[in-house]
What does this fold into?
Amino acid sequence: MSGHSKWSTIKRKKGAADAKRSKVFSRISKEISIAVKEGGPDPDGNPRLRLAIANARGVNMPKDNIERAISSADKDDANLQEVSYEGYAPNGIALFIECMTDNHNRTISNIRSIFNRRGGSLGISGSVGYMFEIKGVFTVSKAIFNSEEFQLGVIDAGAEDIEEEGDIYVITTSLEDYGRVQKKLEDMGISPDTAELQKIPKETKKLTSSEAIKILRIIEEFEDLDDVQNVYHNLEITDEVMEAIEE
It folds into this structure.
């Protein structure tokens, strides 16, 4: 899990940059819209919407933006659909790309273009999905709670792993224990920066720092597409790669 949590930390820092903020807000607005269409505008009775709102607050999305996304969801004529694409980047790195789009042809054209230009290959459905499993992932500021009390509490609730990355804890749970850990955090008065279900690689692949940097640049290129919500990969983020990124 260490490689994954480090990449989560990198993305969290990047998400704080002004240049990335509007894209982050746009993606969360799409998630809110889908959640409202699925389960209605009341977060108390709509777990997916409640989660989307929590993530919006975690990235400091203004309250007006959140309310606007909820109120406009039913009025929005755009027919957003959730689609995913699977493939390989160079050096055999598996990529699972989640999108929300109102134009499937546009989205797959953009995805295929990046794979082709960067020496990768777009695969068929299921070609890499089996390499990942769904886990709950929370990020919590270390300043929020006493370390020992906090860790004992979430472990008791079912946390599989807790890692310190900079100024945050990254908590990983099984899919089954996700709700229990979320409830425990609520009971302790802790509001996570993010609370998500993510696809975590069952095994990671280690590359040289220079090879890994090239892969991360390809991942960022996918993430910069408006239709892309998440990009999951099985690249091992080593300490050497972290040092190269931060230089």
Observations:
- Residues 135 and 198 are 5 Å apart (CA to CA).
- The radius of gyration is 18 Å.
- The first helix runs from residue 2 to 15.
